[in-house]
Amino acid sequence: MEPHTRCLVLPSTYRDSVWLMHLSHTLESLPGVQKVAVMMGTPHNKAMLRQAKLLTAEAEAGGANDLLVCVQTETPTAAAEALREATERVTRQQRRREDVAGEPAPRTLETALRRLQDANLACISVPGEYAVHEARKALQHGLHVFLFSDHVDVEAEVALKNLAAQQGLLVMGPDCGTAILNGVPLGFANHLPRGPVGLIAASGTGLQHVSCLLAHQGIGVSQAIGVGGRDVHERIGGHSMRAALQALAQDPNTRVLVLIAKPPAAPVAARLAQEAERTGKPCVLAFLEETAPRQASGAVYPVVTLAEAALVAGALARSEPLPTGEPDISVSLTAMVQAACAALQPGQRLVRALYCGGTLAYEALYSSMIGLAYLPVLKNWIH
After folding, report:
1. CA 162 to CA 145: how far, in whole Å?
2. Where are the chain's structural domains?
3. Average pLDDT score, the chain
4. d(C-alpha 316, C-alpha 255), whole Å
5. Under 8 Å CB-to-CB from 36, ≥6 apart: which residues?
6. Percent of the chain having pLDDT more than 90?
7. Distance of CA 73 to the CA centre of its chain
8. DSSP letters of 263-326?
9. Any idea what the Cα angle at residue 65 is, between residues 64 and 66, rounded to 5°?
10. In contact, 40 and 69? CB cutoff 8 Å
11. Cα distance between residue 193 and residue 213, in whole Å
12. CATH value of 121-318 in 3.30.565.10, 3.30.530.20, 3.40.50.261, 3.40.50.300
């Protein structure tokens, strides 16, 4: 049976990216639904829908300010049910907004600020072509910015972060997927206990992984600040990571710092290490690179894996001796490695795996723990 594709166009309707992804997940769980795409009708998004064979004539006619809900289902009935559910959820959320505010939801940053005059942070997740304008406006109004949007070019990122520095503000992003500020989750965030460890990360998956490993030790976080993956590139210079360091240095609830990133540019890594030491607080540097230094300097503790970062930060938070030696590899994991080695074919050069997050994939390739634990696999892979 051929799949059935339909699209609902909601004129002049905007919802942020996080809400749209939640709606997509809800619709995908309905019976008979095969694929779902919910996005604004920009030319870029239409091109993606066309490639996915989800772009109908109705969606093609939609504009950049219209919300497109496209579904591929087993039957026309399933498509109609999915689009009905989408309409109800969009309408229900709009009514809930109006019931809470007692008036229509604000359509501009200025209107929102008039209603919430004590606000000090703006969450921005509009398409990248509009994100820079909205972020600049937020900074000019004295707001910190959580910039979930991607597709922001490097020069625009530099300009925004320079403006933030002039205003004494912090830009988290662009393409910042997670943060927890004073216990309030932004973007995608885990439910974590509060505690003494402050995390600053140019890696969403790295931040979430370390925070979960700390929670398993019974240790919470004071703040978890994402800065966007490009922040540690040489052109950006670790701008937001350094600003976050200065903020957490002054935070009485933060006793231990952890910086997390895939390999920063060498000058950026050196500067971050110097500024971390100047905070006067113990700081774990989880810069995942093959040549990461092994010796601590002052109150700075370089590590080479996310697991090691959580172990060292946990020991520092508990005022215990730091862990020594290589992390233990479980018996079951060792058995899996041996089975994988046995399955390799003579002359095989590639091992393929799926990782949910770029930092986890990078760590698997280059961390010393993986290299030591999986040495037979790597030898077969490399040679």
Report:
1. 13
2. 4-101, 121-318, 331-382
3. 86
4. 9
5. 24, 27, 28, 69, 70, 71, 72, 82
6. 61
7. 30
8. ---HHHHHHHHHHHHHTSS-EEEEE--TT---S-BTTEEE-SSHHHHHHHHHHHHHT-PPP-SS
9. 95
10. no
11. 12
12. 3.40.50.261
Angle 338-366-340 from CA coordinates, rounded to 5°? 15
Report strand pairing: 178-181 vs 184-187: antiparallel
Helix, strand, coil: what percent of the chain each, to 5? 45, 20, 35
Q: Is the dihedral of CA 56, 57, 63, 65 positive or negative?
A: negative
Note the pTM of the prediction, 2 decimals. 0.75
What CATH number matches the domain at 4-101, 3.30.70, 1.10.287, 3.40.390, 3.40.630? 3.30.70
The model's pLDDT over 112-132, given as tens digits with 9 standing for 90+, comes to: 898 889 999 999 988 777 899
What is the tens place of the pLDDT at every residue in 296-354?
567 999 988 898 999 999 999 999 998 876 556 556 667 877 887 788 888 877 767 66
Distance CA 343, CA 380 (A): 11
Q: Please tell me the distance from the alpha carbon of residue 11 to that of residue 17, in angstroms, as a whole number.
A: 17
| Residue spans of beta strands (DSSP E) within the chain | 4-10, 33-40, 67-73, 121-124, 144-147, 171-172, 178-181, 184-187, 194-201, 221-226, 256-261, 283-287, 300-302
Which residues have a Cβ under 8 Å from the Cβ of 340 and sit 6 or more positions away? Answer: 351, 377
Tell me the pLDDT tens digit for each residue of 250-299. 999 999 999 999 889 999 999 999 999 999 999 999 998 644 444 556 79
Cis amide linkage into residue 174, ω under 30° from 0: yes
The backbone torsions φ and ψ at residue 302, rounded to the nearest 5 degrees and listed phi first, read: -70, 140
Classify 125 as helix, strand or coil. Answer: coil
* Span of 65-79, 204-218, 223-237, 328-342 with lowest mean pLDDT: 328-342
Closest CA to 205 of 226, 183, 232: 226
Residue 124 burial (CB count, 10 A): 26
Strand partners, 181: 184
Residue pLDDT, tens place only, 190-219: 889 999 999 999 999 999 999 999 999 999
Q: 376: number of CA atoms within 13 Å, CB side?
A: 11
CA distance 224 to 64: 34
